[in-house]
Amino acid sequence: MSAPLRPAPPVVPPPPPSRLRDVEGLVLSPLRPTTRRPAVLVGSLSVLLTVGLWLGDLHPGAAVAAGALTHLVLLYAVYRVLGGHRVAVDHVMRALVHLAFGLALLPLVSLLWTVLTLGGGRGFDPQFLWQTMNGVTGLHDQAYAEGRGDFVGGAFHAIVGTLVITGLATLISVPVGLFTAIYLVEYAAGNRLSSAVRFLVDVMTGIPSIVAGLFAFALFAQIFGLRDAKMGLAGAVALSVLMIPTVVRNSEEMLRIVPNELREASLALGVPKWRTIARIVLPTAASGLASGITLAVARVIGETAPLLVAVGYARALSWNPFEGPMNTLAVYAYFMFTKPLSPAVREPSLERAWAAALLLVLIVVALNLLARLIARLFAPKTGR
Amino acid sequence: MTTSTRPARRRPAAPRRPGDLAFAGLSLGSASLILLVLAGVAFFLAREGVPALTADPEEVTGGAGFGRYVLPLVIGTVISSVIAMVVATPVAVGIALFISHYAPRRVGTAVGFVVDLLAAVPSVVFGMWGLAVLAPQLGPLFGWLERNLGFLPFFGEASATGRTLLTASIVLAVMILPIITSVSREVFLQTPRLHEEAALALGATKWEMIRTAVLPFGTPGVVGGTMLGLGRALGETMAVAIILAPGALSWNLLGSGNKTIPSEIALNFPEAAGLRLSELIAAGLVLFLITLAVNLVARWIVARRAAFSGAGG
Amino acid sequence: MSKRIDVKDLDIYYGDFQAVRGVGMTIEPRSVTAFIGPSGCGKSTFLRTLNRMHEVIPGARVEGEVLIDGQNLYGRDVDPVDVRRQVGMVFQRPNPFPTMSIKENVLAGLRLNARRLSGRAADELAERALRGANLWNEVKDRLDKPGSGLSGGQQQRLCIARAIAIQPEVILMDEPCSALDPISTLAIEDLINELKSDYTVVIVTHNMQQAARVSDRTGFFNLKETGQPGELVEYDSTQTIFNNPRQKATEDYISGRFG
After folding, report:
1. Cβ contact (<8 Å) for A115 and B129?
2. d(CA A373, CA A380)
3. Chains with ≥3 Cβ pairs under 8 A against B?
4. Which residues of A touch B97 (CB under 8 A)?
5. A132, A153 in Cβ contact below 8 A?
6. Structural domain of residue A100, as residue ranges?
7. Nearest residue of C to residue A25 by CA position?
8. Cα of A339 vs its chain's centroid, Å
9. B262-269 average pLDDT score
10. Quick one: A250 and A324 in the same domain?
């Protein structure tokens, strides 16, 4: 900052600004350049401290919390001295954002690890995959625990139930959801019904899953009577209530990004509207639609509450969704976990529960990856 | 298009092809079915639930009428969901900022996928994890809170098992993290580059840029996302049903006790019959109305933000 | 206030792609320097390297030196945040913060840099900056209204007020009038003329008449062909560039034969 060299003050309207630092009532907060190196140093120190506390017999959670807190405080102090308040705040916020990310990773990693270690034992056991719980009682579990018998009972009936019910739900939801999306995008150009439908789809997205189950139960109780209301189809209806809004939303989005030129080109050739939609619009959006539907399936395949209410709980294999209760992996895991066959010997039931949980997680992860793959591999070459 | 050539013939012709009629009909039918389903949800719940409302108060569980029965459930539901929301929101905003402004693009995309995975994990698995892993880990923390903050009414006697409303709320927080994160991430990514550069050109640090340009722009979206998360937490069933050792309404978040509507239904429905069934269905109707209200407010906030940013450029 | 800028042999890269090659020039204090040239020739990119705003784009980097009164902007211990406080910038499209009032927009930079700002000082500095941007008379009765309610030209002058409120050494303007109507453009050009009595002003413009009207010195940027890096072809007094250019390419561009 050199001294002003101007010979005479100019008389033009904007008066010569006096230096900011001379303005009364203004205190500038200087900012000095810093590097990342102190942050790395502080970080290493905090990690060391965390490990030390951990080894020093402190609860790991408390050790990590103490380490993180120390990191933030030290970080602020160091950069307050080196670069000033503003720099220090910047570094602390950066650290907080990274901590938030780590904090979210923690439960996910812990959960996957738990499911893998506790469910891995039975989850890949062919016997578990092919047996049902028909005739299996707590006595079998006790015998197994005492070494007098084999491990019996599996989740085959639950796997079948999951596939049948989710499949039925998909059969119901995809046409309804897809045609609703077609209606919104292709037929109703912003008329009153379309905005009502869009609004109600939003409302439907927010329906708690257990309420969907209650609805299906109440509906089927009307038709078949209270005693015979619980069946696979009721579960499929409940899942459809949850699935349709997802399908509508995803499909609508995908149909909207189909360029209008394509539609117009087809219509201009004299192709009727419905054939334009069926032959041009849907194939163009196909990969996006398929990926959206896969995600919708992934969302409902692990549902427990609505099936608990609408389908009930079966121990034997049932392929028939139109009569009597069935079982699904999620409900199976829930009952094995909370109501072990033998209250005295819980281990075998817990093993079954975690194995079912592992299967569910694997299915859901696979579906998610599949959705990504479809979206990427079969994306229209023209792009957006 | 063809009006200039043969207008006279075109008018009466305009044949509605059967294909077109069928397609338009199917589309309209599907759209209308959604109206029907939603009306059906309200109608059938009300129909099956009415006996609980009109029954002799003495016969309802608790012996003091449906209102007295459902009120503690509503309070428990709201408390757990609000705690979940308060815990999840700052973390979610942090992750969203990490993805949108701190991480390199590739890392950000990967993190986005991981968060989506978190959203996909079935709730029953979250519940099992919460009871088997989280609850025992939280035990010491609860003990510490009781010893050091015991003078606060909601930090009473700590449960040894960790099967408390607070544990359930923390699991709920993990479960609603993804929805809040993804809504926030979307709005943060939409922050006009112009405004970010304006802040940087004034000599803002990265955080100051975020505070000046990104957060004011994104706040309505974050609020909307938070409300959506709240709606989800209100209706979440299995995690609470598995973790919480249910009991009477209590301010003590560290002990067993309290119930939520969804967990009450899940725990009692399999064995319920007669009036009890009606009670549970009526409680479901109450839950439906609460989540409906919360979701409507959330959508309204998000939509208002869209209008605002559209007009403001 | 205003300082001299020396650029020495500056190369600009986006990842592996070289956007600008070998620029060297001296920008005089208390003057207006204009950069002209066809689209994509790197003049805006070069402007952004004068306050390190190019670093906002991942992968962007420079080789060479930019000295402001002898201090290298790209020195090891220089913080880009500090550089940008000293070298202000006005953008192509007016970008007042939509959630802030007119007054808060002007004060935005000060609020960042001030540890304490009394109400009196805030009023005074806001008025001074708005007067400096020839906007005071138009907005003095609605300082608490949002900045997005102003016309495009007023918004751009608000952005200039925001830039000068923190009293930078240099003001960079990246096609500040390209989104404005002719009358607003005139107002901005008048303002640029006044600003140069206190600041070093560097302006990128598509409009050659504008360069001729407002600038003291003009640099002409060009690229040999697409895919090649942009270069500074000629840099001289505006008079010379427009009346008596030494390079054939400059003459062709000035006379409208290409670009």
Report:
1. yes
2. 13
3. A, C
4. 97, 100
5. yes
6. 32-112
7. C118
8. 27
9. 92
10. yes
Chain A segment 129-148 residues within 8 A of B by beta carbon are: none
Asked if C81 lies within 8 A of B204 by C-beta distance, the reply is yes
pLDDT at B176: 94
- Residues A240, A92, single domain; the answer is no
What CATH number should be reported for the domain holding residue A184? Answer: 1.10.3720.10
Indicate whether this model's pTM tops 0.90.
no
- Residue C23 belongs to some domain of the structure: yes
Which residues of B fall within a CB distance of 8 Å from A221?
48
Test B217 with C109 for CB contact under 8 angstroms: no
Question: Residues of A with CB below 8 A from B210's CB?
Answer: 93
A23: nearest CA in chain C?
Answer: C121
Q: Give per-residue pLDDT as tens, C65-82.
A: 999 988 899 988 888 888
Same domain flag for A44 and A167? no
Using CA coordinates, name the residue in chain A closest to C197: A10
Same structural domain, A105 and A172: no
Asked which of A87, A112, A137 is the last residue of a domain, the reply is: A112
Question: What pLDDT score was predicted for residue A4?
Answer: 47
Q: Are residues A106 and A162 in the same domain?
A: no
Q: How many domains does chain C have?
A: 1
In a domain, A42, yes or no: yes
pLDDT tens sequence across A237-249: 999 999 999 999 9
Torsion of CA B203, B206, B211, B217, to 10 degrees: 100
Q: Which of C95, C99, C113 sits opposite B198 (nearest CB)?
A: C95
Residues A249 and A313 in one domain: yes
Model pLDDT for residues A286-334, shown as the tens digit of each residue:
889 999 999 999 989 999 999 999 998 888 888 888 888 899 999 999 9
Per-residue tokens: A156? 């085959």
Domain residues for C92? 5-99+170-254
d(CA A106, CA A90) in angstroms, rounded, equals: 25
Residue % of chain A over a pLDDT of 90: 45
What is the rounded CA–CA span in Å between residue A173 and residue A244? 5
Residue of B nearest to C50 (CA): B201
Q: Which CATH architecture has domain B19-312?
A: Orthogonal Bundle (1.10)
Closest approach of chain A CAs to the CA of B228, in angstroms? 8
Adjacent-strand bridge partners of C170: C87, C200
Strands across the sheet containing C170-174 = C71-72, C60-68, C5-14, C17-27, C230-237, C217-223, C32-36, C200-204, C170-174, C87-90
Q: Is residue A341 part of a domain?
A: yes
Mean pLDDT, range C218-240, rounded to an integer? 90
User: With an 8 Å Cβ cutoff, is A237 touching chain B?
Assistant: no
Q: How many folded domains does chain A comprise?
A: 2
Whether A297 and A175 share a structural domain: yes
Q: Does B16 score more than 90 pLDDT?
A: no
Over 60: is that where the pLDDT of A196 sits? Answer: yes
Quick check: is A293 in a domain?
yes
> How far apart, in whole angstroms, are the C-alpha atoms of residue C9 and residue C228?
17
Contact C219, C238 (CB under 8 A): no
Q: What is the CATH number of the domain that holds C93?
A: 3.40.50.300
Sequence ranges of the domains in chain B: 19-312
Q: How far is B17 from chain C (nearest CA, A)?
A: 50
**One-letter amino acid for residue B290 of the chain:** I
Q: State which amino acid sits at residue B249.
A: L
**3-state secondary structure at position B243:** helix
Domain for residue C134, yes or no?
no
